[in-house]
Amino acid sequence: MDNINYKDNYEETNIYTVSKINSYIKNLLAADDNLQDVWVLGEISNFKLHSSGHMYFVLKDENSQIKAVMFRGNNLNLRFMPQDGMKVKVRGDIQVYERRGEYQLYARAIVEAGKGELYLAFERLKEKLKAEGLFAEEHKKKLPLIPQRIAIITSPTGAAIRDIITISLRRFPNLSLLVVPSLVQGTLAAQEMAQKIDFLNRHFTDLDFIILGRGGGSLEELWAFNEEILARSIFDSKIPIVSAVGHETDFTIADFVADLRCPTPSAAAEMTIPNKANLINNLNLLNSKLVRAMRRNIELKAENLNSLRKSLQYYSPENKINQYFQYIDESINRINSQINHQWQLWEERIKKETQRLDSLNPWAVIDRGYSICRKLPDLEIIKKLEQVEIGDGVEVIISDGKIFGNINKKEALPH
Question: Residue 395 is part of which domain span?
Answer without folding.
Answer: 365-406
